[in-house]
Amino acid sequence: MQRNTHKKDKLFLMLLDISENLKQGGQYFLDFKIKEEKHLEEFQKEMKEYEHKGDVLVAEIIKDLNNTFITPIEREDALELAVHMDEILDGLEQCAAHFYIYNVYEIDHFMVEFSELVYKCIVEIHNAIDLLSQKKLTQIREHSIKIKEYEERCDILERVALKELFEKQNDIKRLIQYKEIYELLENTADECKRVSKVLETVVMKNA
């Protein structure tokens, strides 16, 4: 990705790298069309690659924070942003792994809608991190608000999905598997909300 790095602090560039990897992983998760059992292995392997890259980037930022005397935002806030962004990607990777382990290739409309909402959160996170890197702190709040709105929609979606699942699914094994996947996706949306809270904290401390 081409971006203007003029006068951007190294810490902000590292956070941007994490958010960019998250965005790419989220885009792949959303766009990949699972149609048959044979697709599951490819899907979970590719998501594992994004997750591994995320772990490497987080390890790098932790090392840099430990070796840097002055940071543009508080170390704790930078670390929380990095860790929660990584947790979002971990959640998506775990979901892909569950598809593979449970041999779930019949992706229902609830899973698609969860994926769309989580990706919308990820886009807002990436845009907010970009604004942070430019020190345009007052513009971050509108993205934080959108993240919370999408997360609330995931809360509602989970309830509707679980209600329909318990009403219509007669296969107990499949019921348990789908329930876990819905909950994983909703928990991933919760991590997006945690990022928005840290962003708001950064704005309050530094704006």
From TrEMBL:
SUPFAM superfamilies, per database record: PhoU-like
Highest taxon, organism lineage: Bacteria
Keyword Coiled coil: yes
Coiled coil: 33-60
Keyword Lyase: no
Entry keywords, A to Z: Coiled coil
Family to which the UniProt record says this protein belongs: Belongs to the UPF0111 family.
Name of the protein: DUF47 domain-containing protein
Species assigned in the record: Clostridium rhizosphaerae
Phylogenetic classification of the source organism: Bacteria, Bacillati, Bacillota, Clostridia, Eubacteriales
